[in-house]
Amino acid sequence: MRAGYIQFNPVFGDVEENIQKIGRLVESVDADLIVLPELCNTGYLFTSRREVEELSEKVPSGRTTETLCRLANDKHSHLVAGLIEKDGQKLYNAAVLVGPDGYIATYRKIHLFYEETLWFSPGDLEYTVYNIGICRVGMMICFDWIFPEAARVLALRGADVICHPSNLVHPYCQEAMITRCLENRVFAVTANRTGTEIRGNKQLHFTGKSQITGPDGAILRHAGEITEETSSSDIDVRRAREKTFNPYNDLFLSRRVAFYSDLVKPDR
After folding, report:
1. What domains are defined for the chain?
2. What is the pTM of this model?
């Protein structure tokens, strides 16, 4: 199969323009699975909950998800993209998975970053793996990368490819994803955004450098820091299903879970 990413600079608050741009960019990518950035239809640097709510949409009936479904059908591809999901009175930093036959699933960001904790409810859905035919995919969003449990759970549940929509502002994640893929023997597609957002006295610069990482830690494709880019790579998902490290060690079977009890203690 072929996996790809889209890296671009969304216009804050202009959902119409961003959706149109997403459509053009998706058309330019030759891939079976395409990952877009976190909050790719709205921008990121919010100043109030009211602003977040005005930019939110229901899933799957919202305009963005419906547009993504149409694009996936037209391209006969699967897409993962970040948006603001409205569910009752709650707002979630979410990602949707859609395919040629329509909407498949939503992931709600579990590990909220910085001021996201002011606007969004923490994700309440488990890390889940979806068999889309060509591969098994899982989703995590941006800051989830710093918690190794996120990628590990997806790998244990059978993910071949981790789809990772992001709005990264620190320079660490791209290198850390090499370790996440190596320690779990999975592929990952990190789709980051570019640009700088300035809202009042707030400013954030996004680091770009989207990448596709292989199960051996190799970077198969990578983008620049400031450029809007699309790219894709052929991947053999069978490599993600072979967890043998050497003739004596299987990465999962060699785990000594009886000694990891602190990982499952109640939250402090």
Report:
1. 2-264 (3.60.110.10)
2. 0.97
